[in-house]
UniProtKB/TrEMBL annotation:
Locations listed in the record: Membrane
One GO BP: immune response
THD domain residues: 92-239
Keyword Membrane part of the UniProt annotation: yes
Protein name: TNF
Molecular function GO terms recorded: cytokine activity; tumor necrosis factor receptor binding
Entry keywords, A to Z: Cytokine, Membrane, Signal
Family: Belongs to the tumor necrosis factor family.
InterPro entries hit by this protein: TNF_dom, Tumour_necrosis_fac-like_dom
Signal sequence segment: 1-24
Bilayer-spanning residue ranges: none
GO CC annotation: extracellular space; membrane
Predominant cellular place of this UniProt entry's protein: membrane
Protein source organism: Ruditapes philippinarum
Amino acid sequence: VVVCIIAVLALVWTMPEIPKTVKTGEICLPSEIGPLKCGSTADLLHGYLEREIATKYDEVKRQDQKKQENHLKKVSARLMNIYDKSFWEMKPAAKLTGKEQPDLRKTDSNADMVPIREWCNGRELYDTKGFMRYGIRYRNGRLVVPVDGTYFIYSNLDFFESCNPSSGLPDVKDINKPIKHGIFKFNILEGEEEELVSNVQPHTISTNRYYNSYNSYVSSLAELKAGDELSVKVSNISY
């Protein structure tokens, strides 16, 4: 209402001289295509006020948006000072370290890869460099993702296998079966497990003839959904 009144007053003060040929019930107002247009009072006044109000509304909207942006900048700067940037970096994250593994399940005895079922978690992480924060949960040897997003996942493992002292060959049933290490995801809604990233290494002859040591590091960016469960698998848990 205030904008309309201001627009009408401005109209009266700035209106050019109306031609003498204007009929009763008509009015002359500035138009969008020319300096002055005469016609029906109701139609011209409605169109003029509509244009003027739209212009004023856009201006008020821009000013309000600018105020909001300035306010957000001030608030974010204050919060950054208080929380030392952690306020904006509260993203789900976890890092676990392994522990002694239980005996193999019967269902895993002939499996190509076996999941690592035990990790230090909860209070056990206090004595390690591991952590779990911002919604990540631990369940049955798996990490459960709390929200959809792009995650950086990685796993680093050291493997040791005994060798035959006389030849230095690995003491395994099938030397042609490689050493595998990978990260998998499972979602109960999909019902299928999916390999996200993996590493495959061949067996080698031991230089000291007693044992071999291997290092395997895998990493990748993965699009994960809330509820996805991440697990690490190896070809031989005894390594």
